[in-house]
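Mods, move this if it's the wrong board.
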Amino acid sequence: MTKKLLMLFAVMFLFLSGCQDVSEGTPAPALPAESQNTETTEPPAHEKTKEKDKETIVILHTNDVHCGLDNRIGYDGLYLYKEEMKQEYENVLLVDAGDAIQGGIYGTLSNGKIIIDLMNDVGYDCATIGNHEFDYGFEVLDDLSEELKCGYICANFCTSDGEPVFAPYRIFELAGKKIAMIGADTPSTFTKSKIHTIVDDAGIPMYDFMADETGDRLAQCIQKYVDEVRGKGADIVILMAHLGNSEKDDPRFRSETVMSKLHGIDLLIDAHEHAKAAFELKDGEGRPVKYTQAGTKLRSIGKILIHPDNTITTEFVDEIPQPEGIDAKPVTRGKKEYWVDPGINRKIAEYTSEYEGLLNRKIGETSFDLPVSSEEEDSLAKSHETGLMNLYTDALCELSESDVSMYNGGGIREGFMKGDILYSDCLDAFPYGNDILVMKMKGQLILDVLEFGARKLPLPNNGLIHSRGIEYTADLSVPSSVKEDSNGTFISIDGPYRVKDVLINGEPLDLNKEYAVAMPTFLQECGDGFSMMKDAEILRYTQKVEYSIIAEYIEQTLGGVIPEKYKSIQNRIKVIGFTEKKD
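Not the wrong board. Structure tokens:
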């Protein structure tokens, strides 16, 4: 046998054995093999000066991209940086920790498909789901999961009999090590998506996120797979979770709480709170566990190095350096210049071009800012009345011809800034695309809805109710007596109401009177835990979605100009009795 044939067989054996995937579920994609035929191929100049690191493993990670396909670094910059890393390192992975396909106009218009196509173009090796992966409905997510080449992993999104819907984990063999990645999603997703509406013949939900009153079920579910991958010889175990670790996240399911009940995990790649953070948590045995989360909308890329001695270091990449030996081009985004890959940049332009005419249509203007956030709070409407929410609930009420309207504070994502308002701004502000309907509701039901929405004040809450036609006071000196189940779904109110002095169009609320109330289908379908409305009579569907409502209202009803009255609040929600705790 000739030397060339012997070399060819040796290369094929090394390639196949080095890329073996021993995980359950979808096989891990093989990493690209470098050219081995040095007899006929002259290596590029940059490879002559520095040999690749074959022992260090690089993991690039993103989270909460929320359709930021060309925001800041962008998917084109992410791909460029991955290619730069592949010049230096033999073993490079790219992973995502959820909330990629929703949160922007192109996700809304394509039901997430544009983002999945770009994730395939960039070459993700692994991804888990976030709560917003469910926003277009489970059937859409199921289809998109088939189109995503690397597939999704998630240990705790299960059928009612406890079987994971997606593969719970993946194991990659790199640099002589087995790297296991276990996926997890916050159980709060159950009430923040429509998955709870999929029930069997007995009315029992067909899906389960392993929630309970203590958070133990979630931890036990994850631990089961930690033990399983360790049993398969995993050298490094990574929990890639969409949990969050802030006071706004459910304390039962925060990363810190969950990790304190686990053992055998080396690193937690987190998401959900949109933070850029790196620190250490303690597991159930008091062992330190690295924690990292890379912010949102590709402001940064997370970078993890697993060194030959299995030590782990984390860092963030905020700017992509100008590469050597790789085709790249500069683009200006905001006031900064970024280096990006020309091929992925062209793909982004190709995917988005068909929507440009619609999105760039001017529908109005404003002489003042209508912000959605402040320096202190990322979403004002979750804890305060705002001019922007008053504008939107006015639009709901008038265009649905209802007595009053209701909208949840977590439903708005962007504001309208001084100047022209384009159709794209309406989609950015209301990206969910829920239908608007009108329901028949008794006064008592309205009071229960308001009470449930105000239960967490003064803390932010997605379910805080804003309205046109309803004015109310939340007295925080009255402790909330709302009872909810382990998923955060309303059960009952077992004590005094903190919501009082409710007026409907200037008249005291009549608990026995029936009112016509406009709202998004998200609330009617028990979103954010509002289960008390599920059996209320639907009077009519408006055949309008959220973003089209505000566009039509500004353009036609208001004649394209936002009135000055929305510059300030109108005391539709009054909060009293709050005493700030002092150290």
